[in-house]
Amino acid sequence: xxxxSIHLPALRGNFGSWNYFSTVIKVKDIVDDNxxxxxxxxxxxxxxxxxxxxxxxxxxxxxDKIKEYLLRSKERFFSSLIVAIHKGAPEWADFDLERxxxxxxxxxxxxxxxxxxxxxxxxxxxxxxxxxxLDGQHRLLGLRKAVGDNESxxxxxxxxxxxxxxxxxxxxxxxxxxxxxRYAVSIKPAEKVILEEDDAAAILTRKLVQxxxxxxxxxxxxxxxxxxxxxxxxKNFTSLVCLYExxxxxxxxxxxxxxxxxIRPTDEVLNQLYVNITSFWDFFFKxxxxxxxFINEQKVPSKFIxxxxxxxxxxxxxxxxxxxxxxxxxFDSSKKVKVFKDNVSKIDFNLSGPNWMYVFWKxxxxxxxxxxxxxxxxxxxxxxxxxxxxxxxxxxxxxxxxNLTFKNNLKSTVK
Length: 415
Known about the structure:
By secondary structure, the protein is α+β, with helices and mostly antiparallel strands. The chain has helices spanning 27-31, 48-56, 60-72, 110-119, 137-149, 170-182, 189-195, 200-211, 240-250, 253-256, 267-287, 289-295, 318-333, 337-343, 371-381, 388-401, and strands spanning 6-15, 18-26, 36-37, 81-86, 91-94, 102-103, 106-107, 120-125, 130-135, 157-164. The protein is built from 16 helices and ten strands.
């Protein structure tokens, strides 16, 4: 059965060697009868065996997340799909404008009128075309599934950018497909924290650095977009990305987003989650006044400051801060937070001290491995004895790498 013809308002443009059309179309007109298909569903660009490989590149879990987003978010929005038309003959009709017209009472001159007339029109798709998506195949498949579950999504209008694919110029279209996907760079973590309006951890981290008294200080949060701080940074306490990861721990992020679909919680929920986050930081800064002094540029013991000789305090390292928050949350969840609060300030957090040497610090650099072991040692220092044998075995192996013997000099703070 032929797909019905459709008339679309459109702009016509040129970029490099490509002529293109920009239009809006109802979602139902995209998904009904599969008017637009994916590259693997088309025979226009690649052979059957290549299409089978491309089909395997489609991430079904990502499609399900997109579907859930479309069904659950009232503020849903997509960027344009870029599609190519193969076969068929889409027709273009210009709009005729009066030779003289005004915008905000300013007369538009003839040159501008001519340009506008050449760019605005109606694009008619007969239904005989093959249209395949060059950029946005997961969004397209997510739209199909969402409309299948709820037809009202089909009334949404989505932006399309349409290029014309010619069978004798396959290489040209394949190159465009590759370029569009090569440069579709995902948003960086720090930018996500700054821009995200649905992710609770990002929203609350942004609120934290804008409102919490200690974090609004100049030396509290580095300008880096990375999780870790530069080895030459001796002034800043932490990074924005680290605060985001800590917020995820403190709000039970995986439980909040069990379906992996990121929907903004209600303001009431956000406010309660923010209380959880600030309660942690209230305790942290009260328990470790040297951290506050460091942020305020007041004098602290030299061995406390991050340095390349002894490493300084683990509390001034993002990885150490995240570990601290993770163990805090574990004790809190198991109703043992009082044990944590009563004893954690007794722990020696000096990176080159007996608790963390070779596990967190190896001479002049941070050790990024042994994450499970680090957590187990932290808990052991707070009185948890369940993993003592594991800790001894692992530390024995690590010390052996340095031609040393582990003599079990870890001392629990809990009597």
